[in-house]
Amino acid sequence: MNDLEAYFFANTGNLIHKWRHYFEIYDRHFSRFRGKPINVLEIGVGQGGSLQMWKEYFGPSARIFGIDINPNCKAVEEDRIRIFIGDQEDQAFLAASADKIGRIDILIDDGGHTMGQQIRTFEALFARVDANGVYLIEDLHTSYWAKWGGGYLKPGTFIEYSKQFIDRIHAWYSTEPHRLAVSEFTRSAHSLHYYDSVMVIEKRPIEKPYHLQTGTPKIPGPQAPRQFPVIE
In what order do the strands lie in the sheet with 63-68? Predict the structure, then answer.
């Protein structure tokens, strides 16, 4: 049991509602930020319990921010927790909130979970996450639920939308730049992690990859070192 799970099961404060398997994912991607002066943004405040959990987990140097459409969520503000009230599909509101926060080290999208909300939030805020930050979106199972605009292989779900990310991190190798060109996403997304209902993007400045060889080839024939094309 990690510290987040321990906090959750001992919680007597504000309500926290999370799937049990999320705690391992959180700790895997967030633990390196503990004790550091970071800004954490969670979209979807609910009862405010998870904001208090992040405050405890990341330590006294962390500032925690929440976004929710329910104006009553302002009531959970406290020291180092600040709430912005607005619609997460409103990209102008999201941009204005990001301006007030400044650097965003970790973004957790636990908002309304509709396809429009997830996609528009990503398009507004992914670039606002720090160059070495983390973008985590959860409850992706709604991509399979009609009530949230989902459906298996349905165009426009966040799952289908996110499949392009796989191509985009490989754009360095594209020989069809008119179809797949190196983008800011290619230059900023270090890795994609898919879990049950969760996707995590770890950011890191990425330079054009290159390959190296060391040693002396000694085995003739098809096992000789392959010569890869040079990527311009």
Answer: 81-85, 63-68, 39-43, 104-109, 129-138, 198-203, 189-195
Which is nearest to 202 in space by CA: 144, 153, 146, 131?
131
CATH classification at residue 20: 3.40.50.150
Query: What total of structural domains would you count in the chain?
Result: 1
Instruction: Please check whether residue 22 lies inside any domain of the structure.
Output: yes
Given the residues 29, 113, 170, 211, the one annotated as active site:
113
Answer whether residue 135 is part of any domain: yes
Residue pLDDT, tens place only, 139-187: 999 999 999 999 999 999 999 999 999 999 999 999 999 999 999 999 9
Where helices occur in 34-191 by DSSP H, the ranges are: 49-58, 91-101, 115-125, 158-169, 184-188
78 forms beta bridges with 81
Span 12-22, pLDDT tens digits: 999 999 999 99
- CA dist 59 to 13, 43, 135, 210, Å? 17, 20, 20, 39
Is residue 231 a part of any domain in this protein? no
The C-alpha atoms of residue 35 and residue 60 are separated, in whole angstroms, by: 7
Please enumerate in sequence order all residues whose Cβ is within 8 A of that of 27, keeping only pairs 6 or more positions apart, or say none: 2, 3, 4
Domain that holds residue 125: 3-210+217-223
Structural domain includes residue 230: no
Annotated catalytic residue 113: yes
